[in-house]
């Protein structure tokens, strides 16, 4: 662990439309908010126009579209003036190749092939012939559009280099002499000769397991760390690397004082490997915190509703097996072919089938010692159950996969992670729509809610093992923002009303895919009111991701028109619009209660809390690019100033109550970290004690309401109370002082559904 990990971070999606100078301009606001560190999207040169930065093309320089090195220096000065630190996102697994001429290393590989000094940078299977580039239209005559211009090959807007001595003749003849071959975009998934990030052909896998590649691609970031200009590093997608443990050991050795977190998605019950890092990027915390505010008792009702809507009971296990098999054999067919070739002792088709079955049966993203052997054994058992005809092939490849020095064993985990991500996160999450608040990165749709006791066990373990791990509720990768999920959690307290309402809507405005229709109506209620064009964009992307009634590769115009027609009816049909608005308004207050509760829990539990840009107010963002929309920081700055001037906003005012909770909590963590060094559950006593979650972090006490509709039906807090310390404590949100002992919750939570209690002096410093 670094000597001083961040107290709290604030995530900014630095991009061409909000560059480093724009970020520097809000540093004073971030300081007022209470964070200790700015946490940015990748800063290195990315594909021109990139809105996210995860497609780095040049590791030697700051992205000029962000303002370049000069702007980075200006940002550093702004941060230092406020004594704030910097955490940067890095992308070791892949590089951007959409515009080859902007990536010097890739351009040189295309030009020189195996003789390029960068040939070892990329994970290319040279033994399969020329490097295939899937950029052509799906037309046998597409190469007729190829031109030779200024010594380069041009295909519409695409530019490609020409190897020395091969430029004579027409464009087709020159093309046939190159180290690469331009092919139809449809051939990418099946025939590519380079490893990709998942199924994205414009992101080529890097071989950072090679020390020379590591050094070249990390030199600038590590120089910043050595010079004290970077305090923390967030590692994107370590599961894609050939040797994540070795990579992280090398990174830790090169940056021994950096706060180091990894985007490792853990399945339920899975432990983070014993890596030299400070923890994860917080998806595990996201799932646990969100689950606290879902009524576990409603699971049966939602299962019945899902069965009625679909006309059959859907098995999550069978669904994910089929979607993962599709990912392995279709989207990732090229990677599967490469692996099968490493097992020549098994007939090719049997090797492909056995490896695909094992990947589909793998219950985590990838296995790591020592638990990897357990996951492999479980996958082998399940694969054999489903495909007894493959027993010999399964046994043969499994023996190979048990040998850590075998290349097949080293490459197979890169496939299982991609299969899990594409098959589950990006497909099954859009098909299995029983209760979509659970369909989130790091969560499981089958785990319907989290009892307080389970959350306390998780938090206690985090305090012991990973006290500096990041916690989060929203990121650039979440399917729905934290506040949408909080509102949807209210539906778990109204299963009967929801079932009646959604059946009525689906009958009134039918869609031929009932599972997706259920997702659509849940999303609309969770995000309402939402701009029409945003909902149109979301449902089209979500339906294509589901790949059930339409898809990215083969869009179905009839289904998509029907989908857009339903969306339009939400806005244009008066009765439908009124019903949707009425239900959204009815559940909004309880949703705000859940939002404040989960935010306070996330900000105060063990770990380093991150706040995603804009989510300090109510935020109804959907999956990217919707969650990368511009944030109005002027509104937030002005609202915070009003709060600091003494305004105590009601819960229903534009999210100001959330800003109150976020700012006061972050300021307390930054000013008094000694109040957040242990973890102890605080028990409530009384008839409705199940409706509160409370814990003491070593002086700072968190109190949050859960299941607010059930609480209201029970008549409120009644006799329920918390046992507080005997000395005086102050609530940072209301300013009230409590003298300790048995404190009634109807007094403690009279104004807000949450409270943060601290010793008087500390509370006064955090809440002027």
Automatic annotation (TrEMBL):
<feature type="domain" description="Glycosyl hydrolase family 13 catalytic">
    <location>
        <begin position="13"/>
        <end position="398"/>
    </location>
</feature>
<dbReference type="InterPro" id="IPR017853">
    <property type="entry name" value="GH"/>
</dbReference>
<dbReference type="Pfam" id="PF00128">
    <property type="entry name" value="Alpha-amylase"/>
</dbReference>
<dbReference type="InterPro" id="IPR012767">
    <property type="entry name" value="Trehalose_TreY"/>
</dbReference>
<dbReference type="GO" id="GO:0005992">
    <property type="term" value="P:trehalose biosynthetic process"/>
</dbReference>
<dbReference type="InterPro" id="IPR006047">
    <property type="entry name" value="GH13_cat_dom"/>
</dbReference>
<dbReference type="GO" id="GO:0047470">
    <property type="term" value="F:(1,4)-alpha-D-glucan 1-alpha-D-glucosylmutase activity"/>
</dbReference>
<dbReference type="InterPro" id="IPR013797">
    <property type="entry name" value="Maltooligo_trehalose_synth_4"/>
</dbReference>
<dbReference type="GO" id="GO:0030980">
    <property type="term" value="P:alpha-glucan catabolic process"/>
</dbReference>
<protein>
    <submittedName>
        <fullName>(1-&gt;4)-alpha-D-glucan 1-alpha-D-glucosylmutase</fullName>
    </submittedName>
</protein>
